[in-house]
């Protein structure tokens, strides 16, 4: 007996569960077969070109210099150290960019809702301008039109005789560790723990008695007084090295190279435009009745926004905000256009050209970006879960 499909009754074709399993097994076999074919083809091509596969090249000496490195580096160091420097430089751009973009984006998002005509229009023009200009073009503009057009070190623009801006970058004082650094760190940890315990006690006290407690000012006093006492008892935690002009350049202190400044500023300005719209829509999603209720309790506009509107809006803001953080981190690879030594420029550029280990280099680069992206997602998802509404 046959059914309307032509298959015998009781055939596996009539059982959707068996049919689904068969299709999945066939798909997995095809994917594995295709992957093995590509891998075998890559191995054969590498053998014909005399390229040894594997990650042993990471132990070889790099033999090239790096413009900016957060850890000690010489040309005799290995590709392993180059990899670490590339990761740190990528993280530096990502962290600085996320912080600046968040602050600027939230400010612009609130400004877009301002009843002041001028503030509202300025924020609107900013958003519509910078989010419609490609980030690579903005990087090139900041680098070539702004920073490289600055005067040289001898004519650098100085501030307080400690900060100097020139075509070589931003020179600033450097903190050198002193004997009092260890006790100072311990004091900071103690102050943080004390502040957390104080905040929990104050919250519990308020829930039981209804009496408010100035948690912010008390916590601020703890965070200032405890480390200050440690510095007085054990000495300053750091000594400051002031940059000074010697010959044709500055010596001493820290320097932020113009490539780093151009990348951070351009990505921050670009991403802030999108964050501003996310913040505006998040605030708009909160019922206007919340604002009216807060005003009826005597709260002014500022406290209402900080304590009532923003906390509720964050539940809407966080998911798309996570996407913007990920986009900013991935857009940091555009820094290769101006020679900033991040992962793509260092590893997928210089290291790949020197070693010829294309599959290994690309696999490492993609793994690093994947790990950073997953880490950002996990942190933001944890925060989003914490602020989510708990239904009873």
TrEMBL record:
It is found in: Cell inner membrane; Cell membrane. SUPFAM superfamilies: MetI-like (SSF161098). It is a multi-pass membrane protein. Its main location: membrane. Residues 87-380 form the ABC transmembrane type-1 domain. It comes from the Bacteria. Keywords: Amino-acid transport, Cell membrane, Membrane, Transmembrane, Transmembrane helix, Transport. NCBIfam families: HEQRo_perm_3TM. Belongs to the binding-protein-dependent transport system permease family. HisMQ subfamily. PANTHER family: AMINO-ACID ABC TRANSPORTER PERMEASE PROTEIN YHDX-RELATED, MEMBRANE COMPONENT OF AMINO ACID ABC TRANSPORTER. This is Amino acid ABC transporter permease. The lineage of its organism: Bacteria, Pseudomonadati, Pseudomonadota, Gammaproteobacteria, Pseudomonadales.
